[in-house]
Amino acid sequence: MKKSRNILIILSFALLMFNCSLIIPIPKSIENSFTYCFDGKYTGIDTLINIHGFYKETVIYNASLKDTSHQYFMFYDNGIFVWNIRDSYYDEKKKEIVIKDVELFLKDFAENNETSCAKSFYLYFWGGYIICGDTIKMQKMSQGLSLNSGWHLREEWYKVIDKNTLLFINSFNLPITEISQPVIRTNYPIVFCPIQSKPKQDKSWILKEKWFWCNEKDWEKYMEKLKNEKEKKNEKQ
After folding, report:
1. Which residues contact 145 (CB under 8 A, 6 or more apart)?
2. pTM listed for this prediction
3. CA-to-CA distance for 70 and 191, rounded, in angstroms?
4. Among 160, 224, 214, 167, residue whose Cα is nearest residue 190
5. Total domain count for the chain?
6. Which domain holds residue 71?
7. I want to staple 152 with a disulfide (CB 3.0 to 4.6 A). Which of 12, 97, 142, 198 is the partner?
8. pLDDT tens digit string along 112-159?
């Protein structure tokens, strides 16, 4: 009886570890709904807004309780952006949550992208954007890391007010048949926050996905580049 119980515990633990580490395949419905593909070309976004920094947006999650928080996102001039930049992380050595200013976090990431905290930055929501007149349309994607945390695609629209200010216009899940999350967006201006050091986007998880690229050949070149960099790194060790 005891032996059977131990086997059951081991199997349960193995299943838990498998579930937490598994990256599930992207559903075709979400892959087909992602339309802002990446070609790595200059978009001209820095002629509309400042991008050497991040944008800070106030979001209300519960109107009755006045439950507000901030979202941080950052654009790159080649059509990619990162969303949900965090201002805290769990320090395994200190065994506690460490809170820092977002600017300091990004400075740390830019200076050393090999730390565990920096690596988590490249696992955030990433996606592609297009510019339509005075409106920036973004499709952000969360990776399906486990059976409990599947793929999620959402589109956001922002109107450019000036070089340092955006205004929320629209937000919806993709495919559009999905139910939108109950998030109440505000008319508060989304403000630009400059930074001294900006992390590169070249290690983002989404760049490794073939469906993210407009041209499969460009994706193959990128993957070959990663392979060569890894081999050179291993040679030095």
Report:
1. 20, 22, 23, 24, 123
2. 0.81
3. 11
4. 167
5. 1
6. 25-236
7. 142
8. 877 767 778 888 899 999 999 999 999 999 887 665 557 889 999 999
